[in-house]
Design brief:
This protein is 60% helix and 7% strand. It is mainly α. The strands form 2 sheets. It has a two-stranded antiparallel sheet with strand order 1-2.
């Protein structure tokens, strides 16, 4: 009986490793089992993990070479990312917490935030968004007709199905 349980665990690990390798290979443009260090955040997020920038830097410190080359090797990334997924680290923020955060920014309690307000909050407060992150978010979240973000709709688009 114990052997079957072990095989089940091994099977789960093998399945996780397969997902990681597939995600890594999407960004391995040279097909040499390396990716640009700047792609790691995209790979990690594509695997359903949502680390903060600080957490991403900690992860990079674990997978970079002693002398950073600007590239990450699959052999170093695979065991670290496998542990992240097995430990269920960097889980997404729950829907109710996101809603509460948007509601706190919505001073007039009208169900939306203007583009100007959102840009101000996300680039000047807390862990600021980069210009690229801001553009990515606005391209998805912004209603072009009203130039505002209806945050309940945006949250619905962002929610990750945990099944």
């Amino acid at each position: 009986m114990a052997e079957k349980e072990g095989n089940g665990e091994d099977g789960a690990v093998a399945e996780i490793e397969k997902k990681i390798i597939e995600a890594f290979e999407v960004f391995d443009h040279e097909c040499n089992k390396t990716v640009d260090v700047r792609e790691i955040g995209s790979i990690v997020r594509s695997l359903g993990c949502f680390p903060t920038e600080a957490e991403l830097h900690e992860l990079l410190a674990k997978v970079e070479e002693e002398e950073p080359t600007g590239y990450i090797h699959l052999e170093k990334f695979l065991p670290v990312m496998t542990k992240v997924l097995l430990d269920r680290s960097y889980r997404p923020i729950p829907e109710d917490v996101l809603l509460h955060a948007f509601e706190a920014l919505d001073e007039h309690k009208c169900g939306y935030i203007t583009k100007e307000e959102l840009v101000k909050y996300l680039t000047k407060e807390g862990e600021p968004f980069t210009q690229e992150e801001m553009e990515d978010m606005l391209s998805t979240a912004l209603d072009p007709e009203t130039n505002s973000v209806r945050y309940r709709d945006y949250i619905s688009m962002m929610i990750v199905d945990e099944t």
